[in-house]
# Entry
Amino acid sequence: MRWIIGNVVGQMLLGVNSNNKWFHQTKIENKFYRILHVKDWKKFLPTYDSTLFDLKTQTLDDIINNMCQAELIHELMFIFSLVPIAFSIYFGDLYIFVLTSIVAMMFELCFIIVQRYNRERLVKLNTKLKRRRSR
# Structure
C-alpha cells in the first residue's frame, strides 16, 4: 500500500501548489512542535529519496514543492492506515488490527510533522534569499 501511494499516487501530485493555505503552518502548530521537540528527533527519521531534498541538486523552490508532495503522500498513508481494520471482519481479532493501524498512523504522523516543521523554515529562508537578490 505504501509503495503504491508513494510511487503511483505521488506522481499525480507533482507540481503541487506550495502556496496553498493547507501547507501554511499556524502559530499553534509552531508551539506544538516546540513542545514535541521536533528539532531534536527529526534527524532520526529515514528519507525515501534524499535526492529530492538535496540543496546541491535541487532549488529551494523545488525542495519546498517536494516537501508538499511528501506531506500529501504521508497524509494519504495516514488515512489508509485504517484500511486493515476492515480485515478484522474476516480474520477476527479486531484489537490487533486497530492497534497496528494506530501504530501505522502514528508513524505517518511523525513524517507529516517533520515535513511541516522543515518546510516552514525553508519557506522563510527562500523568501529572505529572494528579497536579497531583488535588491
